[in-house]
Amino acid sequence: MAKQRTHFVCQNCGYISLKWMGRCPECNEWNTMVEEIIMPEDKLQEQISLLKQPAIALDIEKIDLKEEERIKTGINELDRVLGGGIVPGSVVLIAGDPGVGKSTLMTQIIPGLKGKKILYVTGEESAKQLKLRTERLNFPKSFQSKNFLVLAETNLNLIINVIEEVNPDVIIIDSIQTMYRPELESAPGSVSQVRECASVLMQIAKNTGKSILLVGHVTKDGLIAGPKVLEHMVDTVLQFEGERHQSYRILRAIKNRFGSTNEIGIFEMTTEGLKEVKNPSEIFLSERTFGVSGSAVAACIEGTRPLLVEVQALVTPASYGTPQRTAIGFDYHRLSVLLAVLEKKIGIRLGGHDVFIKIVGGLRIEEPGIDLGIVSSIVSSLKDIPVDSQSVVVGEVGLAGEVRSVIQIEKRIQESAKLGFKKIIIPKNNTRGLKIDAEIEIVGVRKVNQALEELLGI
Description:
By secondary structure, this protein is α/β, with parallel strands linked by helices. The protein folds into 3 domains: 1-39, Rubrerythrin, domain 2, CATH 2.20.28; 69-278, P-loop containing nucleotide triphosphate hydrolases (Rossmann fold), CATH 3.40.50.300; 283-456, 2-Layer Sandwich (Ribosomal Protein S5, domain 2), CATH 3.30.230. It is 25% helix and 25% strand.
């Protein structure tokens, strides 16, 4: 009997070595090298009959660009993030922290997939547990359960046999880290298993036109578990964000071959499952306290959606030699840049103060148009002067202390006027050619100190 050959694979990045090493030379992580058996060449060439398709080279002019009708999920927030719905033959990866609501979301889309046969493959729960979830989510009485099939299995070869037998239109795999192929000796969730299972499922989707939704785990650092190649293989990667102790969840597109990666969907977790948030601006501002220093309302854009968010700042004298800088929902390095601009260009000394910044509601905003709101809240807290509660601020802050223009200013102004704000501070360059019919005072500023004078009177 031939001796089995082995190699060592990093469980973090997929690096392969013929000998064991304490630290992976590729990603510099410790104790991630795991021994795996190298499959013989003849076994590697064995393919499932479903995957055998003739290779044909096509003339570029003869490729049909007819757009296929997307599959609507019945959840508008999810359809927006996907770019209009699920594309037939696509593979979508949905990842997030434990308990954030991934399986709940996958279950809730089933009633909306009308006329489609769905196969829900669960590797983490039993069929009875999935049945209990459908009852908790109060499926509509009109739902045709005959098109909803449940399979509690982790062996991918058996799953493929069931797929051939029932021929579903949409396949949900919960989760990809629990699937395994018996031809591989490594354990489920390892780099080789996740890579191989995802590759087989991707070929099924491309060759048969079936849509596949993969639920994925994340590591303690918030990264998608498994090899990075998993994200490259799939068509769409959606990140489900949110804290266990907060009711709001944000679905963000990290990669999307069929739509924009700037869109977000906002949900509220309730006892009856996830509910869409139709007007997120109103929700995020519902608990705002008036007449308190260190709070400002900023208008930002996430994809095509305008959002009004509350920015809170707390500036206190430093108790230790080195002042603290903390940012929640905002990039720490950008906060450092804004503090340097305030010191150098505006003349506001913050070297001896601790500065804490928070975007209310669990949001994480990366759009530069929120800069002026951050600066306003910091100065408001430092001077203990409340920002005008009827004003909204918009603008990117440059290193010279100037307020730079932002995109989609009309949507920001309309959203502010809709929620009853009386004044909006915008970059001066955005006022050029601005034609908008809204009952709100528009003030253009060129410098940060001009904006502070309008908001704080200093």
